[in-house]
Amino acid sequence: EDQKEDLGQEMSKKRPRETPNYFVSIPITDDQILDRIEDVQELIFTKEPDLLRALLPVQTMHLTIIVAHLGTEEEVKKAVLALKQSKTKVEAILQGKDLHMTFHGIGQFNNQVIYVKMLEEDQKTLSRIAEAVEECFNAMHLDISGSKDFKPHLTFLKLSKAPRLKRRGFRKICSALYKEYEDSYFGTEVFSQIDLCAMHKKKQESGYYYCECSIHVGSGGMEESKEQ
């Protein structure tokens, strides 16, 4: 019991410090995908206007690879370096081929998070890429302990974004709100970039997250590497 209590205290001492404040992600910029997501969001909004606050702006659409807690400027610099170092590994996995990420259908976590699904067969290579990035961050001893298993999905609605709704007893998002799109094709994004983004810094003009660093990979990344 004593040990348990010590552990509990240890945990509570540690916890506040380690909330992730950065994430490594793949931006989604394909117009067809973003337009389809807006269509679904509009449909949900017309059926349930209260959910407006729970919708995520399409300008922020991304696949999260890892989340990190970077407490100092030094750690941010290390993370930038880790991302740059991962480029060679990512290029080796791609072998000069384009990676197509196809989005099809809608899924949910606990009826509280609604997302667009990615085709299973496109996920294998992406999972290897995510692993490569993770290795580079671990090699720099950065805190990525908040990261979950990599499951590529495009979140476009989150109940947690609208805490007031929860207080009013709104605990579940009914699938009837988006059933017209439940098995729809959303589009295909060609993988070309990985970003290190700050969660809490002011977003860019475009509406996308503040980026500390981006690497360009695949066929689009070649010219950029030459310039460097």
UniProtKB/TrEMBL annotation:
SUPFAM superfamilies, A to Z: LigT-like (SSF55144)
UniProt entry keywords in alphabetical sequence: Kinase, Transferase
Pfam families referenced in this protein's UniProt entry, alphabetically: AKAP7_NLS (PF10469)
Listed GO CC annotations: cytosol
One GO biological process term: regulation of protein kinase A signaling
Domain A-kinase anchor protein 7-like phosphoesterase: 20-216
Example GO molecular function: kinase activity
Superkingdom classification of source: Eukaryota
Keyword Kinase: yes
PANTHER family xref list: A-KINASE ANCHOR PROTEIN 7-LIKE PHOSPHOESTERASE DOMAIN-CONTAINING PROTEIN, RNA 2',3'-CYCLIC PHOSPHODIESTERASE
Protein name: A-kinase anchor protein 7 isoform gamma
Organism: Fulmarus glacialis
